[in-house]
Amino acid sequence: MTAAATSPTGMAPAPGGRRRLLLGVGDDIDRHARTHGPRRLHGPAVIDEIARSGLTGRGGAAFPVATKLATARDAMTRGRRSVVVANAAEGEPLSRKDAVLVHEAPHLVLDGLAAVASAVGATETYLYVPAGAATRLRAVIATRAARGWDHAVPTVVEAPDRFVAGETTAVVDRIAGGAGLPHDRRVPTAADGLRGRPTVVHNVETLAHVALVDRHGADWFRERGTRSEPGSMLVTVSDDGGIRGVAECDLGAPLASLVDPDARAVLVGGFHGTWVDGREVGSLALSARSLRAVGAAPGAGIVRSLGAGSCGLRATADIADHLAAESAGQCGPCVFGLPALASAIRDLVTHGGADRAEKVARLAATVDGRGACAHPDGTARLVRSALTVFADDIHHHAAGRCAARTSGGHR
Hints:
Blueprint: H1 29-36, H2 44-53, H3 65-76, E1 83-87, H4 97-104, H5 106-120, E2 124-130, H6 131-147, E3 155-159, H7 168-175, E4 199-203, H8 204-216, H9 218-221, E5 232-239, E6 242-250, E7 265-268, E8 274-277, H10 288-291, E9 302-306, H11 312-325, H12 332-351, H13 354-367, H14 375-389, H15 391-398, H16 403-406
Helix pairs in contact: 2-3, 2-5, 5-8, 11-12, 11-14, 12-13, 13-14
Protein name: NADH:ubiquinone oxidoreductase, NADH-binding subunit (Chain F)
Cofactor: [4Fe-4S] cluster; FMN
InterPro entries: ComplexI_51kDa_subunit, Nuo51_FMN-bd, Nuo51_FMN-bd_sf, Nuop51_4Fe4S-bd, Nuop51_4Fe4S-bd_sf
């Protein structure tokens, strides 16, 4: 792997230039001010500059940030004061980027939160974080409040330890006093969210980028990345041995710079992501445009290498078991569909065969697009990619062997 680990939380940047986000500033507010300088934009000017930058959300969906802000500001002008939320829930087991970011650059995240609040006219803001980070971040916010840094002082809300807790409607539900479960919505949260008010929920990495665009401008932001996908992003890199660290790299960087050279497959996008054949990695880049050719996307920035000695079907079964157990339990596709799908994949691992693979594909189609949230959809996407990338393994398992085992690994 090109990007070698430098600490338990960070990695050297992949090709593309020096870091922008992970500068190791930490909680020190004076060091933060010296490193990054003052904010310069306020009100609608923030939205205009973000629109010129081309920044998209780094939480997984890659939705244009300026579009979401404009929706909330328009709703605010009709008499409903906006709310802004910084989302660091990170329930994805293969992701550590948000945890690393709020550890190394909390003030950058909070500056982005303040900039967005100014852009949409919000006087109520929240920082939604895992319970283990709450006490420290409350202290960081108190320091800022004592300096008068934030017009709308954020309230820290603890996220439940659940895979779906970071989904936008689950975030709103938790802040409203609920259990933090997702809900079916037909109106964007940016137009109608917390207590019926326009609510902007952004991943903390997205907000950190907002803070940098605020300071340095759209042209500076576009100096990195590609013309159609500008900027850098954080990527959590892992392999069979677990998470190796977090890399900051340009969009458009070679995917191979983040992958073990002997990987037989790569999971891009995490548990709701897509398996990619290791033989295709050399022709791909970390960008939506490039990864679209293999049905994948950068998502929330997760790249997991599967070694030559590991079984892809078994790895997929392990993930499917986890996803079935982590559902919100609110609708049929999650309550009944995901456990059935996980069981069918286990059967496929044990016995192989085209007929069992077809059953898995049918169950994936049954849950896809039918849930109250996107949890079944992401699970179905992962499973379908496994059936394609590990098609040879399906036949090997039917014969009582495994490609991983025959290559010197274990079944």
